[in-house]
Specification:
Layout lengths: L2 H13 L3 H16 L14 H4 L61 H12 L7 H21 L8 H5 L2 H5 L7 H4 L9 E5 L5 E5 L2 H8 L30 H4 L33 H6 L15 H9 L32 H18 L13 E5 L8 H12 L3 E2 L10 E4 L3 H8 L13 E2 L1 H8 L4 E2 L16 H6 L7 E2 L21 H8 L38 H4 L35 H7 L38 H14 L9 H4 L32 H14 L5 H18 L8 H5 L6 H13 L3 H6 L3 H9 L6 H9 L5 H5 L9 H8 L1 H4 L3 E2 H18 L4 E4 L1 H4 L4 E2 L2 E6 L11 H11 L3 E6 L9 E7 L8 E7 L5 H9 L2 H13 L2 E4 L2 E4 L2 E3 L2 E7 L2 E4 L3 H7 L14
Parallel strand pairs: 3-4, 3-5, 5-6, 12-15
Antiparallel strand pairs: 1-2, 7-8, 9-11, 10-12, 13-14, 14-15, 16-17, 17-20, 18-19
Helix pairs in contact: 4-5, 13-14, 23-24, 23-26, 28-29, 33-35, 36-38
Bound molecules: deoxyuridine-5'-triphosphate and magnesium ion.
Magnesium ion binds next to helix 34.
The structure holds three DNA strands.
DNA sequence: CGTCAGTTGAA
DNA sequence: TTCAAC
DNA sequence: GACG
C-alpha cells in the first residue's frame, strides 16, 4: 500500500470517526515513539547551564545570572548593508603558542559526572575507531543518555505553579517569532514593527506599532529571573523567562482577519482540534482548495464555487487537498515566454562544430565572469561516451572547453589535436574513435580525464615572463592582483594546469604527452585570448607531484587559497601575495563590498552558458587521490562504492542525460538573442535563481514591493500549514518572490507577470489582484486561527511543524501551556532550552555583537592552534546588519601534515570555561572527525542575552564547498544544488560530485557516491556549474 | 505527473 | 525512522 | 506553486 493510499485511508478513517475519537486515534498513532523513547523523564529535567553541558564541559564553571532583558527583535531587512565594512576581521594575528594537535583520542572528554565515568569509562578506553561508525554512534548515545540522566536527575523538576501556568500573559504576548523565518523568510522583510497580540477573547488584534511595540510586549512576557540557572529550582518554571516575542512582521500585518470560516474536516497531516479551540481551529484544506482561486468567493468558502477546482475537492470529501490541478483551468493563457529550450538531438560533432563557429564571433565580446583562458592553445577532442548524441553533459563540457579558450576539435584527428579528454571507458572510447588499441594514439597526445580541465579552474595565471621555457613549475610567480589591474593583456599570462599525467584517462597512457612533444603541444598556438580577470588566486606550488603511479594525495596543492584571497581588491601596486606555502589563513575579507564591476545583467545573461554534466568517469582507478579522507562516514551504510563499477557510472550518465534535458536552451546561438534591441528582457527569464546576482541591485526600491510583501505574507501562512503541499507551495512562492524582486519594472499585466520565470498563472493572478486592489483575499483565507499559535510554538528551538501541531492538538495554545506541559506533552532537551531562552533565541543579533563574539572565539581558537583557518559565515558573511546566529567555519591547512583534529573539543571546552558558550544543543558525532557540526548557545558576557552559535569544521580540501554551503543563503544553495543536479552533478558541503546515483525510491540513499569533481574553492565550483562568481552579499535570494 | 538540496544529530 | 535544523 |  503506498504511502499515499495509506494516507487517504487514514484520513478516511478519521473522517468517519466521531470527533472525540479522532484525538485518541491520532494520539495513539503517535504515541509509540513519542513516549517510550525517552531515556529519562523530561518532566523531571531541568535545563540548566551546568547540567546541559557536555563532556568536555568543565563542571565547575558557572557563570550565571541572566537578565533576560534582551530587547525585542526587530527584523531588519536582509539588505546587505555593506555599509559596515563587511568583513574586516580576518587577519587577526595569530597568537602563537597553541599546541597543535591534541593528542590521542583517548582523552575523550569525560562525561563529567562521576558515576558516568564508572559506567562508561571502560568502554571509552577502546579506541573509537575500532568501531564502525554505527557502533560508535550508538555507544556515544549510550554514554550521553547516561550522562544526561545523571545530570538531569539531580535537578528538581520544574513545574510551573498552577498560578503561573495559568497566566494568560503569554497568550497575550503571543507574538510570532520569526520561527520559520529563519529559513523561509525573506530578506526584504520590512523592519517588522508590528506585533500581534491577542485580546482576551482570543481575537487577534493587529497592533502594528513601531519598534517600541516590541518593548511594550515585554510586559507580557513573563520573564526573566527564572532563567537564572541556579534558581529555578523546582519552583519557577525553569523555562519561562525569555519568552519574548519577536514579532513576525510578515504575519502580523493584517492581523485582523479572523474570519472563522466554516471548515471542512479533513486535514492533511492529521492535525486535529482535539479541543475546540479558542480560536477557531480550522482544518483548512478544503478551504485551501477553494482558496486556490486567487479570488476566493466572497461569500465564503463553500458557497459560490468557481466550479472547477471546487467540485473536485468537495467530492474528495475533503480528504486532502490534493493538487487541485486536476481541474486545469486556463484562464488567460498567456504567452509564455518562459518555455525554454527545445532540446535538440545533436551529435557531439555537430555541437562541437557549432561551438567553434559560434565561439569565434560572439563569444569573445561578451566575456563573462571568470573564464580564464587556461585552455588557450589546447586543441581538444572531447569524447563524452556517445558519438550519436551530445547530451547535456557533453554539451556543457564542450561549452566549458570553449569558454576557457580551448579549441574544440570535432572529431578525432591525431594531426589536429593536442589533447583528448574523456572519462569514458577505454574500450568504449577506442571503439568510438575507431582504434584497436591505445597505443595507436600518437604518443604526444595525452588522454586525460575531465578532471584535468577542471584542474585549470583554480590555478592562478602566472606571468609569462620572458623565458617561455622555464615555465615548468617551480617558479611560477603568482600574479594575483597585478592581474586584475590589467586584465586586458592576458597574452602575458599563462595558465598552468594540472599535469596531464595526473589526470590520465587510461593508465596505460599515463606518460602520453609528457615527452618533449607534450611541451610542444603546449607551446603551440596561443591565441584566442580573452581577457578575464578576477582570479586573483594565489597559488603556491601546486601539487606537482610525483610521478606516474603516485598520487599526489597529500601534497595538497595548496593552490587554492583562492577563496580566501579571492578578490583581493586591487590594492594596486601591492605586492603580490605570495602564499607561503601554507595558506594564508588570512582570511581575507570575505566580503568586501566588492565592486563586481562588469557583468551587467545583460551581459551575464548573454554569456551564460550552461554546462554539461560530467559523466562519471569510469575511472578505473583514481589516479589521483580519490579522497583519501577517512572522514566521511556515510550515513547509510548501503553505498556501494562506485569508482569500481564502470557500469554504474554509465547508469549515472544515462540518468543524468535523461533527467537533464535542459536548461541549456540550446546552443550558443541562444546567446545572440538576448538583447533584442532595447527590449528589456535583460533580467528575468530563464536560468536558475543562482545564475544571476542578487542582492546588489536590491537596494533601490523594488517597483513591485507591495506585491512582494503580500506574497511574502501568504507564503508565511503556508509555511505554518502542515501539508506537504504547502511545503512545496512555499518553495514556489520563494522562487516567485525572488524573481519578482529582481524584476526591474512595475508589472502592468497578467501577461507580463506570467512571463516571468517562477511566476505561473496562479501567482500572476494574485499579483494582478494585488496591483489592482491592493489586497489579496487569499491571505485572509489562509490566516486560520491556529496560525499564530503554531508560529509561536515554532519559535521554540527544536520545535517544528509536526511537534507544533501535535502540541496544538493536545490542547496547548500558549507558551505557558507548553511550560506547564499541558496535555502531557513532552519536550526534548533542545526544546527545553529553546523554551527557556525563547526570547533570546528569537532575537536577531546586531552585527557588531556577532563580530565581537566571533573575535573572542577566534582568538581562543588560535590559541589552540595558530594555523587554524577560522571564518565567520552565514548571514554575517553575506553582510547582513543583524544575524540570527553566529556561524563559524573551522579548518586548517594540511601542508605541514597536521590537521584540526581534536580542535573543536578543546575549543568548546575553553569557551565553556570562559563563559562564552553556555549550553550545548547538539554535539558532533565523533569529536575526532575532521568534519564536525556543533550547535549551542553563547553570550558575549554575563549580562548579555544568549545567542545561537554554530561551528562547522571541515577537512581542508572541502573548504570551498563548505564556504559555499555555509555562506548561503539557503535559497541560493538549493538553487545551486538544483542546477548541479540538472547538470548531472551533485553538490553538497563537501564538494561537487559527478555520477552520484540515488535510490529512486529513497533519495536519501546513495547507490553510488560519485566522483569528486571540485571542492577546494568556491570559484571552481561555481565555474563548473556555469554560475557567475558572486560575492557573498550577492548570494541573497531569500 | 513527477520533482523540487543534501546533509547531520537527537530521540 | 522521523523530525528539526543548518 | 512552477515547471518539464
Ligand atoms: O536549510 C538550510 C539552512 C541553512 N543552510 C546554509 C546556508 C546558510 O547561510 C547557512 C547558515 O544557516 P543559518 O540558519 O545560520 O542561516 P543564515 O543564512 O546565517 O541566516 P541567519 O541570519 O538567520 O542566521 O547554512 C542551508 O544550506 N540550508
Ligand atoms: Mg546564521
Amino acid at each position: 500500500m503506498s504511502e499515499l493510499e495509506f494516507y487517504f485511508a487514514e484520513q478516511q478513517a478519521i473522517m468517519n470517526m466521531p470527533e472525540e475519537d479522532i484525538t485518541d486515534y491520532l494520539a495513539r498513532r503517535r504515541r509509540s515513539r513519542a513516549d517510550g523513547s525517552y531515556t529519562f523523564d523530561p518532566d523531571s529535567v531541568i535545563v540548566d547551564n551546568d547540567t546541559s553541558t557536555l563532556s568536555y564541559a568543565n563542571p565547575s564553571t558557572s557563570h550565571r545570572r541572566t537578565t533576560s532583558v534582551s530587547g525585542v527583535s526587530k527584523h531588519h531587512s536582509e539588505t546587505p548593508q555593506h555599509a559596515e565594512t563587511p568583513q574586516e576581521h580576518s587577519r587577526t594575528p595569530q597568537e602563537p603558542g597553541g599546541l597543535p594537535q591534541e593528542c590521542s583520542p583517548v582523552n575523550q572528554p569525560s562525561h563529567a559526572v562521576a558515576h558516568v565515568d564508572a559506567l562508561v569509562g571502560g568502554k571509552r578506553q577502546t579506541n573509537k575507531h575500532d568501531l564502525s561508525p554505527r557502533m560508535r554512534k550508538k555507544r556515544r548515545r549510550e554514554e550521553e543518555a547516561i550522562n544526561a540522566s545523571a545530570d538531569f536527575t539531580s535537578q528538581a523538576p520544574p513545574h510551573l505553579t498552577a498560578a503561573e501556568s495559568n497566566r494568560s500573559s503569554w497568550e497575550g504576548s503571543l507574538s510570532v517569532p520569526s520561527a520559520r523565518s529563519i529559513h523561509s523568510v525573506s530578506p526584504c522583510e520590512q523592519p517588522a514593527l508590528s506585533c500581534a497580540s491577542e485580546d482576551s477573547a482570543g481575537m487577534l488584534v493587529d497592533t502594528r506599532q513601531p519598534d517600541v511595540s516590541a518593548e511594550s510586549n515585554a510586559e507580557y512576557s513573563i520573564s526573566t529571573v527564572a532563567q537564572t540557572p541556579y534558581h529555578e529550582p523546582a519552583a519557577g518554571s525553569s523555562e519561562n523567562c525569555n519568552i519574548a516575542l519577536p514579532a513576525d512582521p510578515s504575519t502580523s500585518h493584517h492581523a485582523q482577519g479572523k474570519q472563522s470560516a466554516p471548515d471542512l474536516p479533513e486535514t492533511p497531516r492529521g492535525k486535529e482540534p482535539a479541543i475546540p479551540p479558542p480560536l477557531a481551529y480550522h482544518r483548512r484544506s478544503t478551504v485551501a482548495d477553494c482558496s486556490n482561486i486567487t479570488t476566493p468567493p466572497r461569500s465564503g468558502p463553500g458557497a459560490s464555487v468557481p466550479e472547477t477546482a471546487r467540485a473536485k475537492t468537495l467530492s474528495t470529501t475533503g480528504v486532502r487537498r490534493n493538487n487541485g490541478n486536476a481541474t486545469k483551468r486556463v484562464t488567460t493563457k498567456a504567452v509564455k515566454t518562459k518555455g525554454k529550450g527545445k532540446k535538440e538531438l545533436i551529435t557531439p560533432l555537430e555541437y562541437a562544430e557549432r561551438l567553434q563557429a559560434g565561439f569565434s564571433e560572439q563569444a569573445v565580446k561578451k566575456k563573462k565572469h571568470s573564464d580564464k583562458p587556461f585552455l588557450k592553445g589546447k586543441r581538444i577532442f572531447y569524447y563524452g561516451g556517445d558519438l550519436n548524441y551530445a547530451g547535456p553533459q557533453t554539451r556543457n563540457r564542450m561549452d566549458i572547453i570553449t569558454r576557457h579558450g580551448g579549441t574544440l576539435v570535432p572529431k578525432y584527428d591525431p594531426a589536429e589535436i593536442s589533447h583528448i579528454v574523456t572519462d569514458a571507458d577505454e574500450r568504449v572510447f577506442l571503439r568510438a574513435i575507431g582504434l584497436k588499441k591505445l597505443s595507436d594514439i600518437p604518443q604526444h597526445i595525452p588522454t586525460v580525464k575531465w578532471s584535468w580541465v577542471v584542474s585549470g579552474f583554480d590555478r592562478a595565471p602566472v606571468r609569462r615572463s620572458a623565458e617561455a621555457s622555464g615555465k615548468g613549475k617551480a617558479r611560477e610567480k603568482a600574479v594575483g592582483q597585478d592581474l586584475m589591474s590589467n586584465v586586458e593583456d592576458d597574452e602575458e599570462y599563462e595558465y598552468p594546469m594540472g599535469h596531464e599525467f595526473e589526470h590520465a584517462a587510461f593508465k596505460d597512457r599515463i606518460d602520453a604527452g609528457r615527452t618533449p612533444w607534450g611541451e610542444v603541444a603546449k607551446l603551440r598556438a596561443e591565441k584566442g585570448a580573452k581577457k578575464d580577470q578576477s582570479t586573483s588566486k594565489v597559488r603556491s606550488g601546486t601539487g606537482q607531484c610525483a610521478g606516474p603511479g603516485l598520487q599526489d594525495h597529500s601534497a595538497e596543492d595548496i593552490s587554492n587559497i583562492s577563496d580566501f584571497t579571492q578578490d583581493i581588491e586591487p590594492p594596486r601596486g601591492a605586492a603580490t601575495i605570495t602564499v607561503p606555502e601554507g595558506l594564508p589563513s588570512p582570511p581575507s575579507s570575505p566580503d568586501q563590498p566588492r565592486l563586481h564591476s562588469a557583468h551587467t545583467l545583460v551581459s551575464e545573461d548573454a554569456a551564460r552558458t550552461t554546462h554539461t554534466a560530467p559523466q562519471a568517469a569510469p575511472s578505473r582507478e583514481p589516479i589521483r587521490d580519490g579522497e583519501s579522507h577517512a572522514g566521511h562516514k556515510a550515513r547509510s551504510a548501503s553505498v556501494m562504492n562506485s569508482s569500481t563499477d564502470p557500469l554504474a557510472e554509465f547508469y549515472a550518465t544515462a540518468r543524468a542525460e535523461r533527467d537533464a534535458e535542459m536548461f541549456k536552451v540550446d546552443g550558443p546561438d541562444n546567446e545572440s538573442m538576448p538583447v533584442p534591441n532595447g527590449v528589456r528582457r535583460a533580467v528575468v527569464q530563464k536560468g536558475f535563481l543562482c545564475d544571476d546576482k542578487g542582492g546588489a541591485q536590491r537596494l533601490a526600491a523594488c517597483p513591485n514591493q507591495d506585491v512582494i510583501d503580500k506574497l511574502q505574507e501568504l507564503k508565511s501562512l503556508h509555511a505554518v500549514k502542515p501539508s506537504k503541499d504547502d511545503e512545496w507551495r512555499v518553495l514556489g512562492y520563494n522562487k516567485a518572490i525572488a524573481a519578482l524582486r529582481k524584476y526591474p519594472t512595475r508589472i502592468k499585466s497578467y501577461e507580463e507577470a506570467v512571463a516571468i520565470r517562477g511566476v505561473g498563472s496562479k501567482t500572476a493572478q494574485k499579483i494582478m489582484e494585488i496591483i489592482e486592489t491592493g489586497e489579496l483575499r487569499r491571505i485572509e483565507h489562509e490566516r486560520t486561527g491556529d496560525v499564530e499559535v503554531i508560529q509561536s510554538f515554532l519559535g521554540i528551538y527544536g520545535v517544528g511543524l509536526d511537534t507544533a501541531f501535535k502540541w496544538y492538538n493536545n490542547g496547548c495554545r500558549t507558551l505557558d501551556d507548553i511550560a506547564a506541559r499541558k496535555g502531557g506533552i513532552k519536550l526534548s532537551t533542545e526544546q527545553k532550552i529553546g523554551l527557556k531562552y525563547y526570547k533570546d533565541i528569537n532575537t536577531r543579533i546586531p552585527r557588531a555583537e556577532v563580530e565581537e563574539i566571533y573575535n573572542k572565539v577566534k582568538a581562543t581558537a588560535l590559541t589552540i592552534d595558530p594555523k587554524l583557518f577560522i571564518e565567520i559565515m552565514g548571514s554575517f558573511r553575506r553582510g547582513k546588519a543583524d544575524c540570527g546566529d553566529i556561524d563559524v567555519l573551522i579548518t586548517r591547512p594540511t601542508d605541514d601534515g597536521k590537521t584540526h583534529q581534536g580542535v573543536l573539543r578543546r575549543l568548546l571546552r575553553e569557551l565553556h570555561q570562559q563563559g562564552i558558550i553556555t549550553e550545548d544543543l547538539c554535539l558532533p558525532e565523533d569529536f575526532d572527525d575532521l568534519e564536525l557540526v556543533y550547535r549551542g548557545l553563547c553570550r558575549k558576557d554575563a549580562n548579555s542575552p544568549r545567542r545561537r552559535i554554530d561551528f562547522l569544521t571541515v577537512p581542508w580540501k572541502s573548504r570551498g564547498a563548505a564556504l559555499l554551503y555555509y555562506t548561503g543563503d539557503d535559497i541560493f544553495n538549493r538553487s545551486l544544488r538544483l542546477k548541479a543536479n540538472k547538470m548531472g552533478y551533485s553538490l553538497n558541503q563537501r564538494g561537487l560530485y559527478a555520477g552520484v546515483i540515488r535510490n529512486p525510491s529513497d533519495k536519501r540513499q546513495k547507490l553510488d557516491n560519485g566522483q569528486l569533481i571540485a571542492s577546494e574553492s568556491e570559484r571552481e565550483i561555481l565555474d563548473i556549474l556555469g554560475v557567475p562568481w558572486q560575492e557573498p552579499h550577492e548570494r541573497v535570494r531569500g
